[in-house]
Automatic annotation (TrEMBL):
The lineage of its organism: Bacteria, Pseudomonadati, Planctomycetota, Planctomycetia, Isosphaerales. This is IS5 family transposase. Signal peptide: none annotated. NCBIfam families: transpos_IS5_3. Residues 104-182 form the Transposase IS4-like domain. Residues 103-114 have a biased composition (Polar residues). Residues 10-82 form the Insertion element IS402-like domain. InterPro entries: IS402-like_dom, Transposase_11. Residues 115-125 have a biased composition (Basic and acidic residues). Residues 90-125 are annotated as: Disordered. Pfam families: DDE_Tnp_1 (PF01609), DUF4096 (PF13340).
Amino acid sequence: MRTHHYPSDVTDEQWALTEPLIPVYPGGRPRKTDVRDVLDAVSYILRTGCRRRYIPEGFPPRSTTGRYFDEWRSNGTLDRLHDALRREVRTKEKPYRPRSSARVDSQSVDTTSGGEERGRDDAKNVDGRKRHIVVDSMGLLLAVLVTAASVDDGRAASALFARLNGQPMGKVTRMYADSKYHDM
């Protein structure tokens, strides 16, 4: 059991909601690591942008945290956890204040690794990738699309908005965007 806690740690209420969503595999050796500590470590990495090798002491070993993170990302567990927590936040909204707007924007980031999704954004002087993100007015994530930095926002808009299918858009009637999303 850890002694030091961080603002990124899941609360007891969040843990009660997310624990049933974490896969348990029958057979094999019993777990020695507290999965809640692993979730706290993953949350710490995601919240702070910290690299795995810089995880503070007290969390499970970085190899363990990395293994769980990679597994949860590939099998959809992180998506299910995020969706459950987002649903919980939305249920606590006041019914007379439904969210009626969302925002979309992109950010170009340098990358050193190659791959298909890499290009040059001359406007920002960046070689790498571009993250296109849609959030609701509470700042809750609705959709993400990663493209090469050279991809124009207007060209990426249709693929990004296709990812909104099945998302809890509710009463969203207005989408705010900069002029680069001209093809919406």
